[in-house]
From TrEMBL:
Key words of the record: Membrane, Transmembrane, Transmembrane helix
Name under which the protein is recorded: TspO/MBR related protein
Transmembrane segments: 52-73, 85-100, 106-124, 136-163, 169-188, 195-212, 218-238
Taxonomic superkingdom: Bacteria
Signal peptide (UniProt feature, chain positions): none
Length: 248
């Protein structure tokens, strides 16, 4: 008889594959259509530079590696099974996110926060240890959750500016503050998975680069956020301040 853990392991692989192929089954996604907002959002300062989105390739491949390893080598391991339910919810919602995002920025924002909640719940439950547990159990979830932390806050910024609640610069600054509050808080409370914080930094640097010329105040805020996130990684994930002891 197939165990529930084995079924969840198989379902994780299925939802990850659906998540990975979803851009090819839709029109893809290169940012919200500016005209989805009452105040069209063209080149919003809250959005990272285009190169930053290349991290999705790494996220896709690493999540597939997690799912395959979990199914073939760790399907009955309770430590590997612990985050699966949360991952299934997050990635299941994510598999339909692009189709929604191309039609409604409002609903896409709601869904990406559900994805983030699932990703963070999974991150808290990932297997601990070295080898497979660290690099194929915990690390893929860490970068997935880190990028969703940034992306969820970007969506909030687009909503604030797009619906006229604030101007685009104020929206970007508020979104950066929100991303930092979540990112620093998660990193400090988690006390491990430095790749989570490094992925948030990747997004912050993308915002910095995007705003260097036109919106220096946002670039400065993103730079300050990068330093704050780096401090959180050092404080939480580097016992004794030694890189050799980093809990990635």
């Amino acid at each position: 008889m197939i165990s529930m853990a084995s079924l969840r392991a198989a379902l994780v692989l299925l939802v990850i594959l659906a998540f990975v192929v979803s851009p090819y089954l839709t029109d893809g996604f290169s940012g919200f259509d500016p005209d989805l907002f009452p105040n069209p959002q063209r080149n919003p300062p809250v959005q990272p530079a285009g190169y930053a989105f290349g991290i999705w390739g790494l996220i896709y491949l690493w999540l597939i590696a997690l799912a395959v390893t979990g199914l073939l080598a760790r399907r009955a391991d309770p430590a590997w099974d612990a985050p699966r339910a949360a991952l299934i919810i997050s990635l299941g919602v994510g598999s339909g996110w692009i189709a929604v995002a191309n039609a409604s920025a409002v609903w896409a924002t709601v869904l990406i926060w559900i994805m983030l909640a699932g990703a963070l719940a999974a991150l808290w439950r990932v297997p601990q240890g070295d080898g497979l547990a660290r690099w194929l159990g915990a690390a893929p979830v860490a970068i997935y959750a880190g990028w969703l932390t940034a992306a969820s806050c970007v969506s909030v910024g687009l909503m604030l500016a797009g619906f006229g609640v604030t101007g685009p610069v104020a929206a970007a600054l508020l979104s950066l503050a929100l991303a930092l509050a979540i990112g620093v808080g998660v990193q400090l409370r988690l006390g491990r998975s430095a790749l989570y914080g490094l992925t948030v930094i990747w997004a912050l640097v993308g915002v910095l680069v995007a705003n260097l010329g036109d919106t220096p105040v946002v670039a400065l805020a993103a730079g300050a956020g990068t330093l704050a996130m780096g401090w959180a990684i050092w404080r939480a994930a580097l016992p004794g301040g030694s890189l050799a002891g980093a809990r990635w």
